[in-house]
Each structure stands twice: as structure tokens, then as C-alpha cells.
Design goal:
Chain lengths: ~725, ~100
């Protein structure tokens, strides 16, 4: 059961000026849970810059609304479904998709794309007594859950990101983001007047998922909880169509998705944000099973339900549309001229509280303390000897599931339905979608729990830089950032310290780059039997591409000259090379110099604008050796890199090849002279021509000595490792 | 050579959502096929997944126990959301078809 702390109970009684009854207490407990109230994070999240010329609606609503010109908008939202996915990966991941889609519908726009960022324990980790791998089982069913749901409702899953790390043992992080598209003038404005009607539409309310929000706000300990939700994508599809039609007819005055906390949270938040009182009759709720108590009706998290406000003039439109789609709907109550949330059951009042009290939890005071592990990490660390067989190291890096091709995953997704997908997953650094006004948006999610563990501040800066680099590589200028901050318990001062560092990083980066943070979520209490997960902020970048000719992919063409922009330093802490090859956790995490980051990003966009590059790829996980190999595999060509030409300050060869320094890009071009001329004209820019793409040989040379000697078929085969594991 | 005390058993494995967990497939069949088709006296439909297995074992209880263990080990069902019932009978798959 969700519980209020002693202080919260006292505060509630003080605010109400009386003792709340049992039902009122439970409604407030659901709304004041960390999951719904953001009571630990609110005061920090509020500092993030959220204004920008494209921002129409910023953070704090169901989804952010961004202006893309010509009367059109895109909407964007991100959320996770970590706890439910860890107990029921298929249903948990699928209902996560359903929830984020309904947040997009809530703005009155149509969902056009899904993205997912997933985290599991390493696949070879034999973490069950019987020898079977939980992470393999979780990955398989999470992917199927996302794919099935997205495919059934006709929304393409266009991009994603995946990381394997031992801190996610017997657990997983499932982050889903969705993009919506619509006309600016049809956005639901969320307003209401006296006597307007409050309607509940969608699936029946059952006992499933009761206390889900509270479940997500408690440390994950018990597997066998009834807080599981069963997805019904076909019902969601009907909701999308019916609501889109009702929005077009102007029949919806306000709209909200029922998510965590069920009716309790939805009604109190909506009543508070509209500044209007609600009078609700629970007898009207259409139920799955008989004999549900008022409390169960208020807390149920049954899926595929939405709350709508309409008026007496438009109620016939609502009836006609919902009847046509055979959607069940009921009039739950009316808008009143007071400011209370009044809940009745068979006319008897069971709860009556001012909505503003319910919807605004007292903020929790959390202490923060620098984690003790950060001190010991550095002490334990000794740099490894450079391996003699660097060819073997490169092949092993490419077969590392975090780096290897994600073909096995996105093959299970319909990534083209809707006909907006310009670049397929894997073809470029970010996904590019066509809009109706001749413009395009580019979107990508990025995270790096390994680096955020060793250095939460610089690790988070790195995720921001990487997400922006990825959209820039496709020719887009970043216009908005979304963040999903996933941590252990905020009551643990060490966890909270990392959380604050991550928020600081987002604040500093976005203010410096002048990119607004348009939306986000915080997910605390992500803990396994081994303790808190590694700090995992996932960052999403949304970029705008003004013209079709600017869209750039990342596959290398035969005959391309290859340039690198940016400097490679000894920044190998938390890199895939240390963690995957040497099993070392520690060392220097790559740091972002924001001046250089901005200069390099602008230079890349300038090159793309001048039409002189064939392909651009961001240099991140696995370093420059992996980045060039990925471009070569995609383009089906070989290359011959002169290592000494890579601008660097590295002390040894392995860090030069695999360091994950930020702000670096690899470029392929047919016009090396023009590129060189443009880049030399940019003051302070570090770049170098490092090789040419040709034939099938893959070599890295130091002066005349060949250090890595392999070929295209070998790197391509190793890159398919994830598929080999999942189909063995 | 098979020992004489071993026999073939047909084992029927039924996997269904737990009673408190909803079943969109069953609900859709009831609503859109059964009731609309005029059979309004039918009150509930629940979908299940059935597997028939033939196993050589010493006894009915041994057959059921080893299939139950296999379903659990290989995660043929998710114990959080589903119930799995295992029932063994003498004979083989053909003997159940009339």
C-alpha cells in the first residue's frame, strides 16, 4: 500500500483543517508518491531552461509542443516503464508504449514515431540458478512488447539505443519516447467552464495495476506483485482515431491520459491545472469486475483509458464518434464552481478535498553526499598494458552487444508505417521523419550509465553532447532536449548527489548551447538486489532539418576521403574498451568542452549545408576505430587509416583508437579539397584527413607499421554478434 | 532397450492469464464475435494457450512433475501474470483425436 510519511500526514491534516478519511488518504498517497508528485526532484528540475523560439508548451504537461513552422507543430514525450517491464517484460514494455502514445494524443496531435532506449545486464551473464539468462529473456520480450504494440497501432518505431551493464542484473530500463504531429490551431488548449461534462473513455476499469505508481516509488524487491498491466493495442488504436476525429470537430475542451495513480492522479491534476472543481460519481465507471470498492476504482491503473472534458453543445459529437468506434464512454461528472475534487459513490460523498492540496505534494527534503565509491574507484585503477593483438581487440569491440548492429531488434519493428521515415534505423546517427510542410525532424535518444557512474556530471554532459551530435550528423539543428533521469532511491544521499550533478550538467549544457529542455521525467527507486542502478540519465535530442537536400546518412562510399573533426584525448574511463575488454571500472571519463562542442557541431552543419559531404558519423562508444568501422560496414567498403594523422594528446595507441572523447565527427567526402578549405577557414577547429575508403581491406597504420590488419567480411561478421546471440 | 516400467504419457499444458489479469483476446471474442453473433447467453470467454507433449516417464506424477519443471526452467510462461496447469494421461497425441 502507498503510505504517507508522518510529516506528510500531519501536513495534509493541517491543510485540510481536519483528519482525512481513509479514501482521501489513499488518493493523496497515490498523488504524493514520488512517481506522480516529483517531490524530491521538482525544485531542481524547475531550474532547467525551458524557453525557446520553437517552444509552445514546455515541461510539466502530458507532452511538449514545438512549433515547426507553417502552422504545424510536433509534440514529444518520454517515459519509462522499468518496474513493470522487469516483472513482465512483454506487457510492461507494451503498456509503456501505450502510455507515452496517450500522452501524445492528449495534446490533440497524432503519434508519428516511437523511440526506445533499453538497458539490460550483459547477455552472457548467467544470472539464474538454472543457468538460463534473465537478461536474454528480458531483452527478447521487451523488444517483442514494443514491436507488437507499435505495429498494432500503426506507429513506427524509428530509432533506439541499447546498453548492457552488470548494474542492471535481474532488472531493465525501458524508456520509450514518442513524437506527435498536428496543426497548431487544433492543439487542445485544456480549458473548462461551469457545468461542462467530464467523460471517461476507453477500457473498463479493473483491479489490474492497483498501486502501480506506489510500486514504482518503492525500491524494487518483490517480483510477485499484482501491479502488472495487460496491453490492448487495438483498443488504443480506436482511441487514437476517435480522439483525433473529436479534436478535429472541436469537441474536446480538455484531455488527459490515465497513467500512474489512475483516476486519483488524473482527476486531481486536471482539476488543479484547470482551476475548476470536479464533482464525480464513481457508480458510472464501467468496470471489468463486480464489487470494486471506491478506493479500487480511484487507484486502478487499467490501461487504454482517457479523461475528456466537453460541453453540452458538443456532447452529441462525442457520442456519435465514440459510438462509431464502439468505444465505451461514461459521463463521470461535471465541472463545478468550487475548487474541490468531490468524489461520490452512489451519491454519497466519499472524498472531498481542494484539488490544489491533492495535486501539490509538499516537497521532500533530500540530503546529498558524494558517493564513497568515487574515491575507491580511482585508487583501484591501474592502466592496462596495450594488447599486442589490436586486430583481435577491434573485432571484439565490434561484437560487443552494446556496439554491435541492432538489426535483430529493429527488424522486429515496423519502422516505415506512416510513410514518414526518411532514414531507416541503422542508416544514420538519428532517425529522420518527413513533416507535411516540406521540413524534417531528426530524433535520437542517448545514455551512458558507465560514464555517469564514474562521473555523473561529465557523464551526463557527454550524453547531451552525443544526442546533439547525432541529430547534427543527419543535417539537423537541435531545437529541443528531453531528459529521462533514472536513479536509485532519492532517500540515499549518495544517489541524490549523482542526481543533482546530472541536473546541473543538463542546466549548464542547455543554457550554454541555448537549447531548451522541453520535457522530461524522473524515475527514482530503480534498485536491484545488488543496490541502486548506475545513474542513468537518458537524453533525447530533437532537431529540425529545413530542406530535404540536407538529410545526411552515415554509410561510407567507395572512393570517399575520410576526415576527423575534433581531438582525441586519454579519456577512456567508462569506455566500452575498458569495461568490455579489460573489465576495468574507473579512469578519466571523457569531458565536454562546451566551446569546442558548439564550434564542431556548427562546423559540421556548415559542411552539410554546402553539400560537400557524403556521410557523417558521430564518434562515441568504442572510439574512432569503431566509428570508422561502422561507416565502412554500412557502406560495404574498406579503409586504410593513418593513425598518426588523428589529432590527439594520447599517451598510448589503445587510448587513441578507443578513447571516447566527445565533440568528434568522422566525415566521408568526394570533395576533400573543398572540405579542407572550408574547415581551415574556421578559427580554432581541429581536423585532419586520416584515410580513404577503398576495396575490402581494413587497416590501421602507425607510420609504416600495420597495427590492425583485417577485412570487411571479418568486421561485418563480428558486427552481427547480437543477432547470433539472440538466435542461437 | 526401454525398461518395461516406462510408458508414454500425453501431457496437456494450459497457460492462461491469472483471474485478476485481463485478457483482451478473450474479451474481444466475447464482445465482437459471440455476443454480436447472437449468443448473448455466453457470459465470459478466456483465451488460453495449450501445448500437448508426449513424454516417456515412470508414472503420471513423474511425467507431470518433469513437464512442470521444464515449463518453469525454460520460462514457457511468466509466473507473474499467468497460471500454468499440467495434466498427464496415458497414451499419445493420436489417442485424443476421435
Amino acid at each position: 500500500m502507498a503510505d504517507l510519511t508522518k510529516d506528510e500526514s500531519r501536513y495534509l491534516a493541517y491543510k485540510l483543517n481536519r483528519e482525512p478519511n481513509k479514501i482521501e488518504k489513499e488518493i493523496v498517497a497515490a498523488e504524493w508518491s514520488e512517481h506522480c508528485s516529483y517531490k524530491s526532484s521538482k525544485r531542481f528540475i524547475k531550474m532547467l531552461p525551458s524557453k525557446g523560439k520553437h517552444v509552445i508548451v514546455g515541461p510539466g504537461y502530458d507532452a511538449a509542443v514545438l512549433d515547426v513552422g507553417d502552422g504545424y507543430v510536433i509534440t514529444v514525450h518520454i517515459q519509462s516503464h522499468n518496474h513493470p517491464s522487469a516483472v513482465d517484460p512483454y506487457g510492461g514494455a507494451a503498456t509503456g508504449v501505450g502510455g507515452v502514445i496517450r500522452d501524445i494524443i492528449s495534446t490533440g496531435t497524432r503519434p508519428i514515431a516511437l523511440l526506445d532506449a533499453l538497458r539490460f545486464a550483459p547477455l552472457h551473464e548467467e544470472n539464474n540458478e538454472d543457468g538460463s539468462s534473465t537478461s536474454e529473456w528480458l531483452l527478447r520480450h521487451v523488444v517483442r512488447g514494443i514491436g507488437d504494440y507499435g505495429n498494432c497501432i500503426g506507429v513506427p518505431t524509428v530509432a533506439g539505443e541499447i546498453e548492457f551493464d552488470p548494474s542492471f542484473i535481474n532488472y531493465c530500463l525501458v524508456d520509450v519516447a514518442s513524437i506527435g504531429f498536428g496543426r497548431r490551431d487544433s492543439i487542445v488548449r485544456n480549458r473548462a467552464n461551469y457545468d461542462d461534462l467530464i467523460i471517461l473513455v476507453g477500457g473498463p476499469t479493473g483491479r489490474d495495476g492497483i498501486h502501480g505508481a506506489a510500486f514504482a516509488s518503492k525500491t524494487y524487491l518483490h517480483h510477485n506483485r499484482s501491479a502488472v498491466q495487460i496491453p490492448d493495442p487495438f483498443l488504443e488504436k480506436l482511441l487514437i482515431e476517435a480522439i483525433t476525429e473529436a479534436v478535429e470537430e472541436g469537441a474536446i475542451k480538455a484531455l488527459k491520459d490515465l497513467g500512474g495513480g489512475g483516476l486519483s492522479c488524473c482527476l486531481s491534476e486536471m482539476s488543479d491545472s484547470l482551476g475548476k472543481g470536479f464533482d464525480i460519481e464513481l457508480r458510472e465507471v464501467h468496470v471489468k469486475e463486480k464489487g470494486m470498492s471506491p478506493l479500487e476504482l480511484m487507484l486502478s491503473e487499467s490501461q487504454e483509458r482517457m479523461l475528456i472534458i466537453t460541453d453540452h453543445l458538443k456532447i452529441d459529437n462525442i457520442r456519435r464518434i465514440f459510438d462509431k468506434y464502439e468505444l465505451k464512454y461514461v459521463i463521470l461528472g461535471k465541472i463545478k464552481d468550487h475548487h474541490n475534487l468531490v468524489i461520490r459513490c452512489n451519491e454519497k460523498i466519499v472524498a472531498n478535498m481542494p484539488s490544489t492540496i491533492v495535486a501539490n505534494a509538499p516537497l521532500a527534503r533530500r540530503y546529498s553526499k558524494r558517493p564513497a565509491y568515487l574515491t575507491t574507484l580511482r585508487l583501484d585503477f591501474t592502466p592496462p598494458v596495450t594488447p599486442s593483438n589490436l586486430t583481435g581487440v577491434l573485432l571484439s569491440m565490434l561484437s560487443n552487444p552494446t556496439i554491435a548492429s541492432k538489426d535483430w531488434i529493429y527488424r522486429q519493428y515496423d519502422h516505415e508505417v506512416g510513410l514518414r521515415t526518411m532514414l531507416k534505423p541503422g542508416e544514420a546517427d538519428a532517425s529522420v521523419l518527413r513533416l507535411n510542410n516540406g521540413k524534417f525532424i531528426s530524433v535520437k535518444l542517448d545514455g551512458n550509465s558507465k560514464q555517469c557512474y564514474i562521473d555523473p556530471y561529465h557523464g551526463t554532459l557527454g550524453c547531451l553532447s552525443e544526442a546533439c551530435r547525432n541529430v547534427a550528423c543527419t543535417g539537423a539543428f537541435p531545437i529541443g532536449i528531453i531528459d529521462h533521469l533514472q536513479f536509485g532511491s532519492p532517500e540515499n544521499p549518495e544517489v541524490f548527489w549523482s542526481f543533482r550533478k546530472a541536473v546541473n550538467a543538463i542546466n549548464n549544457y542547455c543554457k550554454f548551447m541555448k537549447i531548451p529542455v522541453v520535457g522530461g521525467k524522473v524515475s527514482f527507486y530503480n534498485e536491484t538486489s545488488k543496490g541502486p542502478i548506475k545513474p542513468t540519465p537518458v537524453i533525447g535530442a530533437i532537431g529540425l532539418i529545413e530542406e530535404k537536400r540536407l538529410i545526411t546518412q552515415s554509410s561510407l562510399k567507395d572512393g570517399n576521403a575520410i576526415f576527423i573533426v575534433g581531438t582525441t584525448a586519454n579519456e577512456i574511463g567508462g569506455s566500452e574498451y575498458y569495461e568490455y575488454v579489460h573489465h576495468i571500472t574507473g579512469g578519466n571519463v571523457a569531458k565536454v568542452d562546451m566551446n569546442i562542442d558548439r564550434l564542431n557541431l556548427r562546423s559540421i552543419l556548415q559542411l552539410i549545408d554546402k553539400n560537400v559531404v557524403s556521410c557523417v558519423h558521430d564518434c562515441s562508444k568504442g572510439g574512432v576505430a569503431v566509428a570508422i568501422s561502422e561507416m565502412a560496414i554500412l557502406g560495404g567498403v574498406g579503409f586504410n587509416v593513418f593513425i598518426d594523422k588523428i589529432p590527439n594528446s594520447c599517451s598510448n595507441i589503445d587510448s587513441l583508437l578507443f578513447s571516447e572523447s566527445h565533440s568528434r565527427y568522422v566525415i566521408g567526402t568526394k570533395e576533400p579539397k573543398t572540405v579542407e578549405k572550408i574547415l581551415s577557414g574556421i578559427e580554432g577547429l581541429v581536423f585532419s584527413r586520416i584515410c580513404d575508403a577503398y576495396k575490402e581491406k581494413v587497416t590501421f597504420k602507425m607510420k609504416s607499421k600495420i597495427l590492425i590488419d583485417t577485412d570487411l567480411p571479418a568486421i561485418t561478421t563480428n558486427f552481427k554478434r547480437l543477432e547470433q546471440i539472440m538466435t542461437r | 532397450m526401454r525398461k518395461s516400467n516406462l510408458a508414454d504419457f500425453l501431457v496437456l499444458v494450459t497457460i492462461e492469464n491469472k483471474p485478476f489479469v485481463s485478457d483482451p483476446e478473450g474479451e474481444t471474442i466475447l464482445r465482437d464475435l459471440v455476443v454480436k453473433g447472437g449468443y448473448s447467453n455466453i457470459k465470459s470467454v478466456r483465451s488460453t494457450k495449450n501445448l500437448k507433449m508426449i513424454i516417456t516417464a515412470k508414472s503420471k506424477s513423474v511425467a507431470e512433475e518433469s513437464v512442470r519443471k521444464m515449463c518453469k526452467d525454460l520460462r514457457i510462461f511468466n509466473p507473474v501474470i499467468s497460471n500454468c496447469t499440467v495434466k498427464a494421461m496415458l497414451g499419445n497425441a493420436n489417442s485424443t483425436t476421435k
